[in-house]
Write a structure and sequence with these properties.
Number of helices: 16
Strand content: under 5%
Distance between the termini: 77 Å
Low-confidence stretches: none
Shape: flat
Strand order of the largest sheet: 1-2
Mean pLDDT: 79
Structural class: mainly alpha
Order of helices and strands: HHHEEHHHHHHHHHHHHH
Number of strands: 2
Length: 379
């Protein structure tokens, strides 16, 4: 039984000139109308809930009609809930209508007039003249704009790129204040001066030796990184500066007290998948397989000694390595005798030496001798 009154459907049909509707057609139309109205109300209810309201507005119904590709109703937009009154036109036939708000005409006449809106005016001013921002009341002050001069804008912009174009007076405003002690600041200045001193090799060697062994330089790591970045960018044709920036980088890497690796294992996973998808079999042969053994020994084994989360990440990385190396399996031809996972301990040892212990275990678990043969034959 339909909740919608069939008489309403009959009245609408008669108002548009359809006077003869059979009971079957009337029942079908009533059921369809009920379904469509419930669908609109459900979508409107979603808009109301997402707006964190408990009252359904007419705009919710209009938005529901729009997403259902139905032409919305016009003339009923209101941010206030409508108040409906009830009138009886006969026994059991209530009529609902929107109550009009009663307005006191005397109060309306005596009410103060609203403020007249100001006339719209347009004023032009120079934002920049040949790249230089003039000092006007509409522009930032000179002190604020000076810190932003010549700094590349946009996501991923590198301020040092402007130096390549000859703009050496780049001023970068730091995002976070980092306070160094006077001793560290003096040490940083002395080391930087020694590295760029062409007349004293002994002074430079002493500075590099200090960076290799000093355990208290962790606060200077971002400063040294910025120093290397700036000098390399500004001196791309100066072999003296480039060489000693490489020496400084090597000295920092040799210091066991400095943490210079900003990548957790999840980034390694993304890099492996990226090389596999973009580079194909040639990249797997040239970059992944020759380095897997050292990567397994230096990174994965240490991570396996960590917590449960680290061990799960190692499993995902070994799976990614196995999938990446599987791409060269299709290009392997010939017999696979002797390469079965359980046939020869010698093959296992060679595979372990080729791609590391953890990765070789994962590859052998796949039980694909053709893959083992392709990895062993990869140069």
């Amino acid at each position: 039984m339909s909740l919608w009154n069939p008489d309403n459907v009959r009245d609408v049909a008669e108002s548009i000139g359809i006077s003869a509707l059979s009971d079957e057609v009337l029942a079908a139309l009533t059921s369809d109308i009920e379904f469509r109205i419930s669908s609109v109300l459900q979508e409107a209810w979603k808009f109301m809930r997402h707006s964190k309201r408990s009252t359904l507005f007419t705009q919710d119904v209009s938005l529901a009609l729009r997403i259902m590709e139905v032409e919305p109703l016009y003339g009923y937009e209101s941010t206030r809930p409508l108040r409906f009154g009830e009138a009886s036109i006969g026994p059991g036939q209530p009529l609902f209508y929107v109550e009009d708000e009663e307005v006191d005409f005397e109060k309306l006449i005596n009410a103060s007039l609203p403020k007249v809106a100001r006339e719209i005016k347009l004023t032009a001013h120079w934002l920049a003249v040949e790249g230089v921002q003039p000092s006007t009341a509409y522009n930032p002050t000179t002190a604020d704009s000076r810190s932003q001069e010549l700094v590349p804008k946009g996501p991923g912009a590198n301020p040092n790129i402007s130096a390549i174009n000859g703009n050496d007076n780049v001023t970068v405003k730091p995002l976070v204040k980092h306070v160094l002690s006077k001793e560290l600041l003096l040490y940083f200045e002395k080391v930087c001066g020694a590295l760029l001193d062409e007349g004293s090799d002994e002074y430079r060697f002493a500075a590099l030796a200090s960076i290799r062994a000093d355990p208290g330089l962790h606060q200077l790591v971002p400063y040294f990184v910025q120093f290397i970045s700036e000098k390399v960018t500004h001196n791309l044709k100066d072999l003296f500066v480039l060489k000693h920036m490489m020496d400084l980088t090597a000295a920092m890497l040799e210091n066991d007290s400095l943490f210079l690796d900003p990548y957790p294992l999840c980034s390694n996973y993304g890099g492996i998948v990226g090389l596999h998808k973009i580079g194909g079999p040639e990249v797997v042969r040239a970059l992944i397989i020759p380095n897997v053994s050292e990567y397994d020994r230096l990174i994965l084994r240490d991570a396996m000694e960590g917590d449960e989360g680290k061990r799960k990440e190692v499993v995902m990385i070994t799976e990614a390595l196995a999938v990446a190396m599987s791409i060269i399996e299709e290009q392997s031809f010939g017999q696979v005798n002797g390469y079965h996972s359980g046939d020869s301990e010698e093959i296992k040892n060679k595979l372990r030496a080729k791609i590391g212990e953890l990765t070789s275990i994962r590859v052998l678990e796949l039980g694909r001798p053709k893959l083992v043969k392709a990895i062993m034959e990869a140069s």
